[in-house]
Amino acid sequence: MKLADERGMTTVYEPAEDSRLLADAVLDRIDGGRVLEVGVGSGYVAARVDSETHADVVGCDINPAACARAKGEGIEIVRSNLTDPFAADSFDAVVFNPPYLPTPPDEEWDDPLEYALSGGEDGRRVVRPFLADVGRILRPTGRCYLLVSTLTDIEAVVELAETAGLAAEQIAEESFPFERLVVLKITQKNT
């Protein structure tokens, strides 16, 4: 599977400070059960959850190169758009580092890495449909761990979760010169 495009640029999101923050935040909160990493990318977060917990981990990604890369890391993979193919009540935890960089339409490019980076004009283009559906695939006591940035407007993301019948609380954060990254724990409101 081709992992670079014709320009020699990578086609799979490589682990960075956001990936490490998300992995570190979830490792002591997941011990077992069925776990899905949406947008698995390189497989870094899923591989850490798989190797450092007792969870049964599956990853999904829209990018075929990312699926191949994560599969090479030993992760069970489903090529999909977000949570579309998964059955209701099938996961104890869902982990997602979505594309969150606000990107004006005239600055977007049609590229596999674009899917891993661009969150549309407000940074929430992918977060909206994800939050609208993640409650469906979570078991009643399931948790979702979502990484967001101040560039994406964390309060707007919390409001999207609430609109979807979910509750969100901040469990980890790290500050950088240009943004603050936050991991939100998201649950069904009735739990």
UniProtKB/TrEMBL annotation:
<dbReference type="GO" id="GO:0008276">
    <property type="term" value="F:protein methyltransferase activity"/>
</dbReference>
<protein>
    <submittedName>
        <fullName>Methyltransferase domain-containing protein</fullName>
    </submittedName>
</protein>
<feature type="domain" description="Methyltransferase small">
    <location>
        <begin position="18"/>
        <end position="100"/>
    </location>
</feature>
<comment type="similarity">
    <text>Belongs to the eukaryotic/archaeal PrmC-related family.</text>
</comment>
<dbReference type="InterPro" id="IPR007848">
    <property type="entry name" value="Small_mtfrase_dom"/>
</dbReference>
<dbReference type="GO" id="GO:0008757">
    <property type="term" value="F:S-adenosylmethionine-dependent methyltransferase activity"/>
</dbReference>
<keyword id="KW-0949">S-adenosyl-L-methionine</keyword>
<dbReference type="InterPro" id="IPR002052">
    <property type="entry name" value="DNA_methylase_N6_adenine_CS"/>
</dbReference>
<keyword id="KW-0808">Transferase</keyword>
<dbReference type="GO" id="GO:0035657">
    <property type="term" value="C:eRF1 methyltransferase complex"/>
</dbReference>
<dbReference type="InterPro" id="IPR004557">
    <property type="entry name" value="PrmC-related"/>
</dbReference>
<dbReference type="Pfam" id="PF05175">
    <property type="entry name" value="MTS"/>
</dbReference>
<dbReference type="GO" id="GO:0003676">
    <property type="term" value="F:nucleic acid binding"/>
</dbReference>
<dbReference type="InterPro" id="IPR029063">
    <property type="entry name" value="SAM-dependent_MTases_sf"/>
</dbReference>
<dbReference type="InterPro" id="IPR052190">
    <property type="entry name" value="Euk-Arch_PrmC-MTase"/>
</dbReference>
<dbReference type="GO" id="GO:0032259">
    <property type="term" value="P:methylation"/>
</dbReference>
<keyword id="KW-0489">Methyltransferase</keyword>
